[in-house]
Amino acid sequence: MWFGVLVFAAAAAGVLAAEGGNANQNSLKPLDSHLFHSLNKISPPIVLPDQTRALYTTSRYDPEKNKSFSFLSLLDTVSGESTQLTPEMEGERISSPMWLNENTAGYVFKGALYQHNLQPNINGTLFYNTTVGISSATYRAATGQLFFLADVYSDGNISSVAGYKEKEKNRTDSAQVFDNLWARHWNKWMTPVKANLFSVKVPLAENGGLGQAAREVNLMQGLAPSVDPLLRWEAEGYAVSSDGQHAAYVVRSPSPDLSWSTNVDIYLVPCNGSGQSELLTEAYKGAASNP
Length: 291
Prior knowledge:
mainly beta, six-stranded antiparallel sheet, four-stranded antiparallel sheet, 3 helices, disordered N terminus
């Protein structure tokens, strides 16, 4: 419900702003493609358990400057008052708003996690960064764990990505040998790096902030290895239980008929990485999504 309200409010504000805020019938202009792409776009809200406050991001595109802008906001769900928490960021979009605790927000910007003390119009402080960018992050305060997707190579380790990239950069050959010619020139965009689901322990510190992050755990490491480095398991999305004990993730099976197969599965795995992933959709041969 809140998402619908926010979207409607943003769209209305964008139209009125385009005409100097005049709401009379004669001043309104048609919603053409130029105006449509200039409207504020609101993310789904992340609501506190007590349902009194929610975090969301706003992004917009400026066609005159050909640049995108975004910022993080706090919504008081009781009064309806919205407060802009960060300055408007240019370039890559702010994403993954989250509650780290009731007084601290988190968000991802340029592949790193920032924490924010909910004071208006200030930048957050860098809290968690890796050698690769993270995306689709979420946090479970009950277990003190951060979850995110990150692109890694066949060994599944974040720490080795930089070494693989350096090796590719210094290659002296460009030859390729195909024993399986995929449809639609997939070799042009099927790369050795694949999105994997990770968890990392980030406990609360004594001062109420966040403590030192532990080593990342790849929750997909137990899946059967693939011979072809371009045909590997890749997470397309995930969800974490409210108690932070289990995660369900969406993957496409790395089979030779990948280019025309519609089979997409959902696996369940313990969030601490102590157990194997359990296939939940074995009986269904179509595309599964949105766990």
